[in-house]
Amino acid sequence: MTMDHGQGYAYMERSGFRGDGVGRRRRLPAGLRAPVEARAWKEFGYTLLSLPIGITAFVFAVTMLSLGAGLLITFIGIPVLAAALAGCRGFGALERTRARALLDLDIAAPEPLRPRARGAFSVIGAVLKSGASWRHVLYSLLLMPWSIFSFVVAVAFWSYGWVMLTYPLWFWLFPLYGGQGGIQLYGDDNHRIYLDNPFEIGVTAATGLLVTLAAPWILRALTTVDRVLVAGLLGPSRLASRVVELESDRGVVVDTAAADLRRIERDLHDGAQARLVALAMDLGLAKEKLTEDPEAAARMVDEAHGEVKIALQELRDLARGIHPAVLTDRGLDAALSALAARCTVPVQVEVDLAARPAAAIEGIAYFTVSELLQNISKHSRATQGSVDVWRSDDRLMLQVIDNGAGGADVSAGSGLAGLAERLDAVDGILVVDSPQGGPTAVTAELPWRQG
Amino acid sequence: MRVVIAEDSVLLREGLTRLLTDRGHDVVAGVGDADALIKTITDLAARDALPDVVVADVRMPPTHTDEGVRAAVYLRSRHPDLGVLVLSQYVEEQYATELLAGSSRGVGYLLKDRVAEVREFVDAVVRVAEGGTALDPEVVAQLLGRSRKQDVLAGLTPREREVLGLMAEGRTNSAVARQLVVSDGAVEKHVSNIFLKLGLSPSDGDHRRVLAVLTYLNS
Question: How far apart are CA A244 and CA A356, in angstroms?
């Protein structure tokens, strides 16, 4: 009879749970959904794991540190200390993985050790001097007390909640416990209170429901502290993060410079150089013809003359592409007006600057507008455009607008993405607003540096 | 002489075509990249109409690096009778070494600027078409400069070094004589002195002589 009930119950719960799971996701507010969501269970798992891990790390750190400190009078203490620190760093790597898997918290590894030379002594020195090592030790020491507390709180809330919530089922399955009906809530020699009437059972289940609903938020609060610990003590220091950022920026700058040089070399090779070779060839032919066929020679010299003028034009364009003279001489207003004049679409230029920015910033602003105007000429099918430049506190703002077809490509590898990367390298920002059908507005922000 | 031109700059391709046609040579085809060149030559060979010489730019699409040299090396291995003259904006002794690997028969490597000297340039194309060699003076200078046999080279008189350079470019005795404004006999005397000092056995054919000199310089 009991078995039947049990099977029936199991079946009911399975089907019911499935129905609830699907239905709840659609109907129920986050507060009611939280106890059955994967996130809550993962955080619970994290808190459970913290206790054994915290104790192990604490024991390791305390043992090794005291051993190392005790042995410091002899030389052997230093490598022992270094081993303690290195162990804590390795443990930190595990912890970052655990946080990534269970808390969805992605923390980068701290700055690597940079021993000055090869050899054990340099490595030991680097381990001991690295601030990150000591932060890892601090984490190893702090984790245990915190994990004991959070373990107790989490387990209490989680288990009491679910047990109380399902109390009616327990009561139904096992009406008698220790010869009495229901669980003993309170008891001394005189009074004993058993949860055995429907009202008490109902109150117990309701309390269980409240505790179950509260448990995920308690867990979230507990793991927030874990997140702070992991992020603050196991990640790269702020200085190191900035160094990584700058290294990446510098990489972009170097890449950009190399790409520019390649472009210039290509332009020279395909343009002016080829034209000059053709010119030399024409003149060579003319020289050969000078005596036998002066008329043909004159024609060739004429052609060569035309070639040399085109070659000069190409060299001038190329030089302007490297750095426009007018930008240096007259500033952004004149240079951008010249750019706009060469655009195939009529473009209105408005530059509102009381002073000139630094030459580097001016150059970047110029090339940004130049590329955006080229895009307008090539892709936009616009009939008019505008360029606005102004200063807003410590930022130089550029805005290029056209009334073309919109839908500008900002995916990786596109010209705009390249532009955004180059601006990023100088702490600038590029914002593209280009809905299908237009209009397109591209806004760039550069840091203002006084020229 | 039947010529195929591979050059991605239309301007230069047409210039070269005009220059060669003007001198009474037959430009069979003009192409813009290495793949088209190999395809054209393969087609012509299949019709038993292999040209005498290919004039190819080093840098062509798609990568704009050295596809001209690679195509030239490939064509020379497939068609040993085909002369290949490679033109380059810059002189890279490495490219010359790759081209000359194996044989110096019907191979040339010149700076593009050389087309300005129309007569010399066309002479070089004809020389390569006939199985001779045409190496740019700058390539030869690099080869001479890089050779590990500096001590032996130092034993040559200035005039002999000049003759050695012109010889390495692939010129015949009479061409060398014309260039240096001396008699053919004088050049022959210099040449046999050079071969004696370098310890090479004198050989008759111009291109075999070049090969001997280049092998010597490169070893």
Answer: 31
Contacts of B11 in chain A (CB under 8 A): 274-275, 278
- The answer to whether position B78 is within a domain reads yes
Residue B143 maps to a domain: no
Give the minimum alpha-carbon distance from B18 to chain A in angstroms, rounded to a whole number: 10
pLDDT tens-digit map of A377-406: 888 888 999 999 999 888 999 999 999 888
**A240-322 CATH fold:** 1.20.5
Boundary-marking domain end, from B101, B135, B169: B135
Residue of A nearest to B11 (CA): A278
The complex's ipTM works out to 0.74
Q: Give me the residue spans of the domains in chain A.
A: 38-233, 240-322, 325-447
Contact A287 B118 (CB under 8 A): yes
**Per-residue DSSP letters for B31-49?**
ESSHHHHHHHHHHHHHTT-
Range of the domain at B17: 2-135
Taking the model in full, what pTM does it have? Answer: 0.56
Q: Does the beta-carbon distance from B12 to A278 stay under 8 Å?
A: yes
d(CA B105, CA B99): 10
From chain A residues 290-329, the ones with a CB under 8 A of any chain B CB are none
Instruction: Tell me if A105 sits within 8 A of A230, measured CB to CB.
Output: yes
- Do A281 and B19 count as a contact with CB atoms less than 8 A apart? yes
| Listed residue (A69, A71, A49, A73) closest to A61, CA to CA | A69
How many structural domains compose chain B? 2
Nearest chain B Cα to A307, which residue? B11
Query: In the structure, what pLDDT confidence band is assigned to residue A23 with cuts at 50, 70 and 90?
Result: very low
CA A227 from chain centre, in angstroms, equals: 17
**Interchain contact, B118 vs A277, CB within 8 Å:** no
The residue in chain B having the minimum alpha-carbon distance to the alpha carbon of residue A286 is B118
Residue A6's pLDDT band, with cuts at 50, 70 and 90, is very low
- Is B184 an interface residue toward A (CB < 8 Å)? no
Tell me whether residues A285 and B18 touch, CB distance under 8 A. yes
Condensed to tens digits (0 to 9), the pLDDT of residues A264-278 reads: 887 787 778 888 888
Nearest to B12 among A274, A284, A287 (CB): A274
